[in-house]
TrEMBL record:
Highest classification ranks of the organism: Bacteria, Pseudomonadati, Pseudomonadota, Betaproteobacteria, Burkholderiales
Domain of life of the organism encoding this protein: Bacteria
Residue ranges of every copy of the EAL domain listed in the record: 24-281
Species this chain originates from: Castellaniella denitrificans
Protein name: EAL domain-containing protein
Length: 281
């Protein structure tokens, strides 16, 4: 019976499927249980300085915390298969707080291996509409004794555009705590530099679709180059995600990109691997 249910792919959301309301409710219930029973875990993906940075380029900047669901029967489930369902339910509030708490605790532990190493967490649109969120982030930082500047929150342009006025209020409150803010998947949304200039953000992450296309496509390369230049004009740090080859890394470094992330630098992995990676760098 279990196999049949799995074969039908009922309980795991696939953006391509038009899952029934019943399936969605089933999955939502399972996700609630997953959070209560500790079935989620964080994998950490390293980011390195491509230019500048303490200790010169090539040094570790920090990690991005990426959540996985260790499902008791179906094994490891990637975030694209369950985050979209969490995001449209109230579960997104306790879920994101759990991720923030775990990521902050982990970052505090990693200070013993590499002082100053940072941690980034992905935040959803609904978290930006929650007036309690900044205070709760502040609580997590105090509880684990982590300097706020070592925590980075990644938000997408579309998450901000869902309700720009309220999102801006939350972003200002988070910024006032001293945490760093970055725009994730930059280039896939509205991408107005004029608007970006009004946001209290520190960094911009160039979407991996641009980065992946850079080596072979000179137009992509020109786009990436101008994103980097405009960001620097606005005083923003630039992070390139999805670096898969030495060639792409060298191109980005040559363009003055500040920070790099991608499989070529390191895969998302459990905390123990992140510690090993830090010791090797
Ligand atoms: P993202 O925040 O843009 O994260 C980058 C994604 O690209 C990650 O996928 C990462 O594993 C993948 N990636 C990194 N380097 C490379 C590369 O060189 N090549 C390729 N092809 N991919 C690379 P992942 O872990 O499957 O996460 C997917 C998305 O799920 C994330 O995109 C983020 O939007 C969301 N997500 C993950 N964890 C959380 C979370 O705790 N909360 C929220 N709200 N969203 C999350
Ligand atoms: Mg991200
Ligand atoms: Mg991204
Ligand atoms: Mg993404």
């Amino acid at each position: 019976r279990r196999a049949k249910r799995d074969g039908l792919g009922i309980a795991v959301f696939n953006p391509q499927d038009r899952a029934s309301v019943h399936d969605r409710l089933l999955l939502r219930g399972e996700l609630r249980t997953a959070l209560a029973q500790g079935q989620f875990l964080l994998h950490l993906q390293p980011k390195i300085f491509l230019n500048g940075g303490p200790g010169g380029s090539g040094g570790p900047m920090g990690f991005e915390a990426l959540t996985r669901w260790a499902h008791p029967e179906r094994g490891m489930i990637p975030p694209d298969r369950f985050i979209p369902v969490i995001e449209v339910s109230d579960l997104i509030h306790p879920f994101t707080l759990w991720v923030v708490d775990q990521a902050v605790a982990c970052c505090a532990r990693l200070q013993a291996v590499h002082p100053g190493v940072g941690m980034a967490v992905n935040v959803s649109a609904r978290n930006l509409l929650d007036g309690h969120f900044p205070g709760q982030v502040g609580d997590a930082l105090r509880r684990h004794g982590l300097a706020p500047a070592l925590l980075e929150l990644e938000v997408t342009e579309s998450a901000i555009m869902a309700d720009p006025a309220r999102a801006l209020e939350t972003l200002h409150a988070l910024s006032a705590l001293g945490v760093r803010l970055s725009i994730d998947d930059f280039g896939t949304g509205y991408s107005s530099f004029a608007y970006l200039n009004r946001l209290p953000v520190n960094a911009l992450k160039i979407d991996q679709s641009f980065v992946a296309g850079m080596a072979a496509d000179t137009d992509m390369r020109a786009i990436v180059r101008s994103i980097i230049e405009m960001s620097h004009t606005l005083g923003l740090m630039v992070i390139a995600e999805g670096i898969e080859t030495q060639e792409t890394l060298d191109l980005l470094r040559g363009m003055g990109c500040d920070v790099g992330q991608g499989y070529f630098i390191g895969y998302p992995a459990p905390e123990s691997s992140a510690e090993d990676w830090l010791r090797d760098h």
